[in-house]
From TrEMBL:
Keywords: Ribonucleoprotein, Ribosomal protein. This is 30S ribosomal protein S1. Belongs to the bacterial ribosomal protein bS1 family. Gene3D superfamilies: Nucleic acid-binding proteins. Residues 124-192, 208-239 form the S1 motif domain. Pfam families: S1 (PF00575). SUPFAM superfamilies: Nucleic acid-binding proteins (SSF50249). It comes from Clostridium facile. The keyword Iron does not apply.
Amino acid sequence: MRFYPEGLLYHQPENKLGISTPFQLKESMASQKILESKAILCDSQHNLVVQLGCMKGFIPREEGAIGIGEGTTKDIALISKVNKPVCFVVTGFQEQNGETIALLSRRKAQQICYREYINQLAPGDIIPAVVTHLEPFGCFVDIGCGIPSLIPIDAISVSRISHPKDRFWVGQEIRTIVRSLDENGRVFLSHKELLGTWEQNVSQFHAGETVGGIVRSIESYGIFVELTPNLAGLAEYKEGVQAGQNASIYIKSLIPEKMKIKLIIVDAFDAPPTKPEVQYFIDEGHIDHWCYSPDCCSRMIETNFQFPLEE
C-alpha cells in the first residue's frame, strides 16, 4: 500500500472507485483500504461529515486524528479540514433518518500509515511531503495521511532566509529527507541536502556573467545575494538596496577553496512574488552522508545520516 500526504490520493482512479458505490465501500472496509474524500462539515461537537461518491460519511471526533481522544492533538486539526480532502478507513454503516451513513476513521488510517510506512523509515530516506502551514521557525508538512512533521528554518536551505515563505507555499508538493526519528514516532526532517552541493550549484555560473539573484541580508561589510537556494555570495555594499529585492548580479570571481563568490550588484528592484519550482539534485532513494563543501575547502558543511544528531 502506498501512503500519500492528504489530498494526493483524492483524484487517483483507485480512490474514486473505492468510494463510488456501497459495494465498493464495503470491499474497502473489508481490506482496510485507505480512501480520501472531502470533508463538508465540522459540527458543534467537532465530528466531521464527509461527502462520498455514493453517500455521506461520518467521522466521530475521537476518530478524527491520533491524539484527539487523549488531548494531545487540538481540535483545530479537525476544524481546519473542512472543504479539504481527508483520509479514512471505513469502519461500518448505520441508518440515520432513513438513509445509510458510512462510519469512518481518520485515526485508524493514520495508525496504519504509522505501522506500515512511517515506522519503517530510517535517517537518510528521501520522502514526499506537502506543505501545510508556515511559521517563522519552520515549515510544517504532511508526510502521509495528515501526519505532521517539521522542517526547521535552518534545514530548509544553505542560503539563509528570513521566513519559510521565502521558499515554500501552502499546498506545495516537495521532497524531504528524514534527519532522525524518536521513540514517540515523531519524524524530524531536513531539506537542504536535496538542493545540491556548493560545486553542483556553482557549476551553473561563471565569472564575468551577469545573472539574477535575490537580496537576502544587508551587512556593514557587504550584501548577501542568493543565486540559488543552496548558493549565496557577498556583494559590495550598494546604497538603497533592501533585503527581499530582486537583483541583477555581476559575478566577479568564484573561489572554491574558500567556498566564496564575489559579486557586484548592477541593479536591485522590487518584483511581484513568484512560486518557483524547487530544483532537486536528488529526489528519491536514500543517502547516508552529504557534504556541501568542495574537497579543496578546509571548512566542512556536512550531514551524516548514519549518526543523526539527537533532537
